[in-house]
Each structure stands twice: as C-alpha cells, then as structure tokens.
Design a protein that fits this description.
Layout (H helix, E strand, L loop, with lengths): L2 E14 L2 E14 L3 E5 L6 H8 L7 E6 L2 E2 L5 H10 L1 E5 L10 H10 L6 H14 L15 H13 L5 E5 L7 H13 L6 E6 L2 H4 L4 E6 L2 E7 L1
Parallel strand pairs: 3-8, 3-9, 6-7, 7-8
Antiparallel strand pairs: 1-2, 1-4, 4-5, 9-10
The structure holds adenosine-5'-diphosphate and magnesium ion (MG).
Length: 228
C-alpha cells in the first residue's frame, strides 16, 4: 500500500530556559489513504505537536515527512500555506470559528485564502459542505448562536470544504456532551467513505475505539500501534 504520509525520525525540541523539552523524540509512522486513525496518549505526550507539524502549522526540528510523494518537512512558508489550504483540514477542540462571520462565511473562508479566490464558487462549495454535516438550516447564524455540537459540525464543514486528503482532529469531542460526541465521531468516520483520511487525537479510550487503528503516544514516542 502506498502511503499518503510517511514520517521518519521526527523530532521537535523546545528550548525552555536551560532545559530541552522533547515534545517529539523520534517518531516513525505511515498513514494510508482512507484510514481512520486515533492517536491516544496522556496530556503532554506530543499529540498536538505531531498534529500541528503534519497540518503544516509548525515545522519539525529533525526528521522527514513525505506527503503525497513530496518531502515537506522543511518547506518554506508559502508552500506550507499552499498545503494548508489545499491538502489538509483541521478540527480543533475549541472549534476556532470566527465569531463575527456567519456560518456560511466561516466555512467559505479557507477557499478565499487560495490563489485567485472566487467568492461565488467558495459560497457554493461552503453550502455543499454544510449540507454534508446537516447544517444547511443555519447558514446565516453566527457561531455564538449555535450549540457546541453544531459549532463542531460547522468546523468539520470548514475542514472538508477544500477537498483535503486528510483531516486532523485534535480532541474534537473534548467540549461536547455525550450525544454530540457520537454525532461528531459518526461524521468524521463517514468521511472515510469519501476517501478522506481522518486522524483523530484524543485522551479518551472510548473515543479512540471508534477508529480501526489506534496509535498510543507516550513521552514524544509511539508506544503502541495496533489495528483492531
Ligand atoms: N510551544 C511550546 N514551547 C515549549 N514547550 C512546548 C510547546 N508546545 C508543547 N510543548 C511541550 O511539549 C510536550 C508535548 O505537548 P503537546 O504536543 O501539546 O502534548 P499533548 O497534545 O499530547 O497534550 C509537553 O511537554 C509540552 O509542555
Ligand atoms: Mg494536545
């Protein structure tokens, strides 16, 4: 099977005063297209650091990342921005929607950061993505007028609007009640059928067990990697 992402010897070291913090201490992983992967591990084990680097929001200190055949670990800011807006989607625990924009505007926004943006095409794509997550009836609401579960569905629409190859969801259910946890996990799981790879970070074993493959991290390393 060819890998969507192939990671070798990935390290991220933060200098804190006189001390080095090894947030990632040498990670090797492969993700295939269409996989549903959960990353489990205690707080501080490096899960978010890994997501931010793979999501092109941060760069590693050492190591290699081959993404769709291209070495991307040390790309410049422009190329990283291109990957962020064209190949990956991100879902955060705290939703990160812009409060002054409507639901439709929030979801269309990533497309407006692309080269030669087309506002009408962006709005049309945003409507399709919002339909996909069952939020078509709230296009003109502001995030503050939605429940937590609804906000996370809008955030998932924003993550898929650009047709990414992979979605990184960092503790996406951390702020949700039980019913919405199920809804959001069902929605993320259903993206697999469309060929999107989903990497879900959680510290909750019951959430992780929704995925076919569970990777456990500890102290910046992969401790266990099992298919269920
Ligand atoms: N910007 C930063 N500066 C210094 N240390 C950091 C920074 N980001 C994360 N760390 C440290 O790196 C380790 C891993 O953090 P993180 O990836 O956020 O873990 P997790 O998401 O698993 O809770 C922790 O010890 C954390 O304190
Ligand atoms: Mg984290």
């Amino acid at each position: 099977m060819t890998s969507l992402i192939s990671i070798r010897g990935l390290r991220k070291t933060y200098r804190m005063g006189d001390e080095n913090v090894h947030a990632l201490a040498g990670v090797d992983l492969d993700f295939a297209a269409g996989e549903f992967v959960a990353i489990l591990g205690p707080s501080g084990s490096g899960k978010s650091t890994l997501m931010h680097i793979l999501g092109f929001m941060d760069t590693p200190s050492e190591g290699s990342i081959v993404f769709e055949g291209e070495e991307v670990a040390r790309l410049g800011a422009d190329r990283r921005a291109w990957y962020r807006s064209n190949r990956v989607g991100f879902v955060f625990q705290s939703f990160n929607l812009l409060p002054r924009l409507t639901v439709l505007e929030n979801v269309a926004l990533p497309l407006l950061y692309r080269e030669r943006p087309d506002a009408e095409a962006a709005a049309a794509a945003a409507r399709v993505a919002l339909e996909r997550v069952g939020m078509s009836h709230r296009l003109d609401h502001r995030p503050g007028q939605l429940s937590g579960g609804e906000r996370q569905r809008v955030a998932i629409a924003r993550a898929i609007v650009g047709s990414p190859a992979i979605i990184f969801a960092d503790e996406p259910t951390g702020n949700l009640d039980v019913r919405n946890v199920d809804l959001v996990l069902d929605l993320l799981g259903s993206l697999i059928q469309e060929g999107i790879t989903v990497v879900l970070v959680t510290h909750d074993l019951s959430v992780a067990e929704r995925a076919r493959r569970v990777i456990t991290m500890r102290a910046g390393l992969v401790q266990e990697d099992r298919q269920r």
